[in-house]
Amino acid sequence: MKIKLGIITPETHMDYFRAIEEEMRPLCQFRFLTISSFRETTDLYLQNLDSVDGFVISGRMLYESIDKDCLDEKVPIHILQDNENLLYRELFRLLVTKPGLDISRVYVDYAYVIDSFREFQQYLTPEGKPVDSGDLFKQAEIMLDNHITLWENKKIDLSITAFGHFVPELQKHGVRYILIRPTLEDVKETISEIINEITILKLKNQRAVVACLSVHNGQPSSAEQLQELKALVGRFLHSVKIADTAQISDGYVRLYTTYGHFMRITANAHNCTLLEYLEGFISGKVKIGWGTGHEYFQANVNATKAHRQAEAYAGSCSFFINEEQKVIGPLRSMNVIQFSEQGDPDILALAKKIGINNINLQRIMSYAEMMRTNKLSSEDVAECLSMTTRGANRILNKIEESNYVQTVFEKRDNTKGRPKKYYELLFLDKEGRKISK
Known about the structure:
Elements: E1 3-10, H1 14-24, E2 28-35, H2 41-48, E3 54-57, H3 60-64, E4 77-79, H4 84-97, E5 106-108, H5 136-152, E6 158-161, H6 167-172, E7 177-179, H7 184-205, E8 208-216, H8 223-239, E9 246-249, E10 252-258, H9 259-265, H10 273-279, E11 285-293, H11 296-311, E12 317-321, E13 326-329, E14 337-340, H12 345-354, H13 358-371, E15 375-376, H14 378-385, H15 389-401, E16 405-410, E17 420-425
Helix pairs in contact: 13-14, 14-15
């Protein structure tokens, strides 16, 4: 199936895309979404989000005009970058071919949005309203008004713009202008890059994923409980419009799906909506292990491993293991702990020196990095390892005995009372990142 690209661009850039449309036809299909104002961009993006595989947007400011809360990270966006060199080249050409041109009577809107060009502003027209408004739409309106007002008041001889949607208004008011545009080569390169990215994503999204599910009530699930669980999984899949491929196997309910569907169900491996759904109907602890692989056999093995991680966790939870044996979980928030079943050689060596489990050490390190600190309390460690505070203290004492930690007492968040005891992990920096040797 061909890749579908949404091209968000002013009409003035259409000739470029038309010029390469035939050449790109074997690889992709263009959907042209022309704008006449920055204010239209968000609506165009949302209206076409579900019908294209990616977007190409002609210009950084056009991209910035999209409401960032609306962006879907699963749909790639590539931007035709505003190339400063094109502006410099055009100014140089003007100075060479028109030696009599008074550069101070040229209005360049581009100069007010490119930081590296600010030093040249003193040589351009000092007239015009300031354009440093924090409101992007207001900025654009001011720049267009400057073009027209300065021209009509005979304070400029030429306008240079990087915004194609200004052109109709400039023509309407008879403004002499030059439009700076990306080269055809830039357009081709941008199109090729997004096609490659989408192709890789499509292949990745078709990888096999298996979910291994169970309910813990202090004893193995009965046949009736497994049938109930399977039925609930089927109802959830129907609600999110995914085919029901759940089966009962070896005392579990196993769901066979794809990586793309897994990412939908887990909000990109952050929050498992299937788990949330099941918790609304089941009184016991729900355990879900997700595994991926190039084939369903490998995905099934990893799902079983991930389920073991879920079983070791105190409450209902969902864990994921990928082909590289990287473990992610519990999938209950936007901040999840990540570690590897195989382990980094340096971390394995450190765990052996301290005398603690390698995975527990990885979890502590991941939690510290997530919290952006190398100072953890025994409660922090208990939370990330899903154990009692007493168990966490035993692990922290082992680390302290190996001289890899020092205790500090601090008060945080303006709390009242005595300072709290924290363990400063000496193998992590102040942001909780592993210190390289």
